[in-house]
Amino acid sequence: MAKEQINEFGRTVILRRNNEGQYDPSDDSFTGSTSAEESIKALFTDFTEKEIDGTIILRGDKKVLIASAELLAPPQHNDTIVDGNDEYKIIPMSTIQPGDTPIIYKLQVRK
Questions:
Q1: CA 84, CA 6: separation in Å to the nearest integer?
Q2: CA nearest 68: which of 40, 89, 109, 37?
Q3: Who contacts 37 (Cβ-Cβ below 8 Å, separation ≥6)?
Q4: CA distance 80 to 83
Q5: What is the pTM of this model?
Q6: What percent of the chain has pLDDT over 90?
Q7: Around Cβ 8, how many Cβ atoms within 10 Å?
Q8: Is the pLDDT confidence value at 1 over 80?
């Protein structure tokens, strides 16, 4: 049911999975960085004025709901959502999982 509602009211976006590669402490850099893209349906909503605290949740942050059945693997903190010309970094994420199976990933994203 969650997937049906996200498909009906959401839109197609790109989940860009970013792999930073190996860390080299000698020059404080990463080598071998890669990324892979996955086309998914996502539902964007705004945070309410009450939720915006100016520290953890900033004005302009969005909530993004993704049905777990849409994904090959859960989104990660360093992944990004690409919506047209806008790119959003995933800040924290929570999983709605009443039993053993995740149903929805609830993301906080920021431009």
A1: 18
A2: 40
A3: 14, 15, 16, 17, 82
A4: 10
A5: 0.82
A6: 64
A7: 9
A8: no
Which tens digits make up the pLDDT trace of 15-64? 999 877 677 788 887 776 678 899 999 999 999 999 999 999 999 999 99
**Spatial contact of 110 and 83, defined as CB atoms under 8 Å apart:** no
Which pLDDT score is estimated for 108? 97
Distance CA 86, CA 111 (A): 7
What is the three-class DSSP state of 3? Answer: helix
The β-bridge partners of 16 are 37, 80
Q: At 70, is the secondary structure helix, strand, or coil?
A: helix
Of 7 and 49, the structure prediction assigns the larger pLDDT to: 49
Q: Are 104 and 95 in contact (CB under 8 A)?
A: yes
How far apart CA 97 and CA 105 sit, in angstroms, is 9
